[in-house]
Amino acid sequence: MHVQGGAYNFGTPCNLVKIRKQGGVEHRRGNGRRRKISNEDNVVLGQWIRRNSEITSKEIVAKLHTKKDLNVSRWTVRRQLRRLGYKNVLPRGTPMLTNEQKERRVQWALAHKDDDWNRAVFSDETSYQLFRNTICRWSKYANKETKPIPKNRQKIMVWGAFSIKGLLQCYSFRTIMNGRLYVEILQNHLIGNARKQFGRRWRYQQDNDPKHTSRIAKQF
């Protein structure tokens, strides 16, 4: 018997038993409780998610019960999905294009594929809204999870332009952009900065937004 510090040390006898049985004292994997979701079930989970990426953990639990005769909780499903590399995320919104719009874009790209874009200036505008409730959370009490949001949220519009030489300028405003405001932005924030980069030899590229093709914008 080996006594250390007034107490019996169980480490040495246990290590001797390990050495006799497995030739070393390293921890042997697989001694714990086996997971309910097997590798074969992992393949099935991946197939379900590829077919429907918006499937919920409750729906997966129901499908495992009916199709695989496997009873697990939705928390077990979520833990297993995290082990497989899946995350519960909120997808970014992207504009939806019709087939006609896609075809027009392809034809435009083919017609201008040989253009020299080294002296081109591109611009666009977008909006930013404060206190947007678009972030997913992991919580033990999902039904009680809240986020205080002001009734009148601030929204800011931003116009920006860039070229191969870098950013020209960004301009922020809070009113709705129309043709008149668009022309004012071009006069005050585009022309002077573009001439600083390219002199008088440059081209301006924009999309076919209604305010870009308005009468006052075309006259400008």
Helix fraction by DSSP (H/I, runs of at least 4) = 25-40%
Strands of the widest sheet, in order across it, are 5-4-3-6
| Cα-to-Cα separation, first versus last residue | 98 Å
CATH architecture of the largest domain: 2-Layer Sandwich
Instruction: Write down how many β-strands occur, each being a DSSP E stretch of 2 or more residues.
Output: 6
How are helices and strands ordered from N to C? EEHHHHHEEEHEH
What number of domains? 3
The secondary-structure class comes to alpha+beta
The count of helical stretches stands at: 7
Instruction: Round the mean pLDDT to the nearest integer and report it.
Output: 81
Q: What's the gyration radius in Å? A: 31 Å
Low-confidence stretches: 1-9
Strand count, sense and closure of the main sheet?
A: 4 strands, mixed
**Beta-strand residue percentage:** 15-25%
**CATH topology-level name of the largest domain:** Nucleotidyltransferase, domain 5
